[in-house]
Design brief:
Rossmann fold; binds nicotinamide-adenine-dinucleotide; alpha/beta; 9-stranded mixed β-sheet; globular; single chain; Dihydrodipicolinate Reductase, domain 2; 6-stranded parallel β-sheet; 2 domains
Length: about 400
């Protein structure tokens, strides 16, 4: 059994998500393409790095990312640090000849995303971006149905990702609200997932017309913690929020389909409300992540009288599910998407298969983000091909 040695950077929300999946993956998949060996974890302080390594089962730790990227035994550099350091770390990893698994969005700017793509292409390393919502058995099956032509020509895509995780104005300022550190707000943080799904299931996007808004204009400064785990003093001074709380995008796809993409990080009552509906000439399908173990399908060729949306509950006959459970309906969760993602990462590297979505796909998502920001600022339609990093 070949080992692939992992160097993880960041021990926050996603650092935990990836680590849990590395630990679980060898117990779920059989045969294993390779064994993920948790070699080294890097974070910005000794305390965070040491604690992360101990909690998640890494053999060693380092302060910062350089030692991880240049570690002679590391095969895969896994980037779960905030957006603004993705480029610096990915370019260094590519130069060191390491395969790269990077969280979304690829980068803060389109130019940075292009630099990452170019560096990985030049080094000839494999890349994977953490658009994990593409990995649910329901969405993998949706893609299969579309690729098999079961929905006919695709006419419409309507997708959204709404959360209320940041709807409380007393939630402190963190890297997510700062342009230099995060890039856009709800658009890049949440909308990026929907853009990735739209492009994977329908086609590349041709042009967009977007509207963005920031409802909570300032937030108290954080007194500790990081990201969603930041803490606050009630009397803390306030900082101006620099990016969008919500975005609405009209989309025209290159295959002729029309659609809408929406995202809000302040939508009260919505948790991980990632959902999409696709309508084609012969049928439709609908997915909602809060009910991630269901896919609604409608086929116009079903017999009249019984025709209607029906609910498919994923089981062993659907993509990836059978590795988890032998009977339908047991249900997978958020962590299982990451476990599937990591299985595909190791399989792609060990068996020289194409990884999807790779940095090229991540760059295309960044093009749509850039086009949407320009469109919202200038109140006009923007062609995606005119946005080049
Ligand atoms: N795929 C998903 O569903 C999903 C969900 C949440 C976050 N994300 C993405 O994951 C990334 C991280 O988000 P998070 O919520 O885990 O953030 P977080 O703030 O919880 O964790 C980030 C960690 O990175 C560390 N870090 C920061 N700069 C570093 C550096 N230069 N070197 C080493 N470590 C560094 C921080 O100290 C922290 O421990 C972001 O790109 C985010 O968009 C993806």
């Amino acid at each position: 059994m070949k080992n692939l040695n992992i160097g993880l950077i960041g021990s926050g929300f996603m650092g935990k998500g990836h680590s849990v999946a590395y630990n679980l993956m060898p117990k779920i998949f059989n045969p294993l393409p390779a064994y993920p060996r948790l070699k080294i974890l890097g974070d910005i302080t000794e305390a965070l790095a040491k604690q992360g390594a101990e909690n998640f089962g890494f053999e060693s730790w380092a302060v910062g990312y350089e030692e991880v990227v240049n570690h002679p035994e590391v095969d895969i550099v896994d980037i779960t640090a905030p957006n603004q350091v993705h480029k610096e770390i990915a370019v260094a990893a590519a130069k060191a000849g390491k395969h790269i698994y990077c969280e979304k969005p690829l980068a803060v700017t389109l130019a940075d995303a292009k630099a990452m793509l170019d560096a990985a292409d030049k080094a000839g390393v494999k890349t994977l971006v953490g658009f994990n919502y593409l990995k649910t058995p329901a969405t993998l099956y949706a893609k299969q149905l579309i690729d098999e032509g079961k929905l006919g020509d695709i006419w419409h895509f309507r997708g959204y990702f709404h959360q209320d995780v940041l709807a409380d104005p007393m939630l402190p300022f963190s890297w997510r609200f700062e342009k230099k550190l995060a890039g856009s707000g709800a658009l890049g943080d949440l909308g990026a997932h929907i853009i990735a799904i739209a492009q994977a299931l329908v086609s590349d996007i041709d042009k967009v017309s977007a509207l963005t808004e920031t409802f909570i204009k300032e937030r108290p400064q954080a007194s500790g913690g990081s990201g969603y785990s930041s803490t606050v003093d009630l009397n803390a001074p306030k900082k101006i929020v620099e990016n969008d709380d919500a975005v609405h995008i009209l989309t025209k796809f290159k295959n002729g389909a029309t659609g809408t993409i929406e995202s809000s990080r302040v939508a009260q009552g919505r948790k991980v409300y990632l959902a999409y509906e696709i309508n084609g000439s012969k049928g439709s399908l609908r997915f909602e992540h809060e009910r991630m173990n269901e896919l609604k399908v409608y086929f116009s060729e079903d017999p009249e009288g019984t025709r209607g949306f029906r609910t498919i509950i994923p089981g062993p006959e659907h993509p990836m599910y059978g590795s988890f459970w032998p009977v339908a309906g047991c249900g997978l969760g958020f962590g299982d998407m990451k476990t599937i993602e990591i299985y595909q990462l190791l399989d792609g590297i060990a068996n020289d298969k194409l990884l999807k979505p790779d940095f090229k796909d991540g760059y295309k998502v960044s093009q749509v983000i850039e086009a949407s920001l320009i469109s919202a600022a200038e109140e006009r339609w923007v062609k995606i091909d005119d946005c080049i990093g």
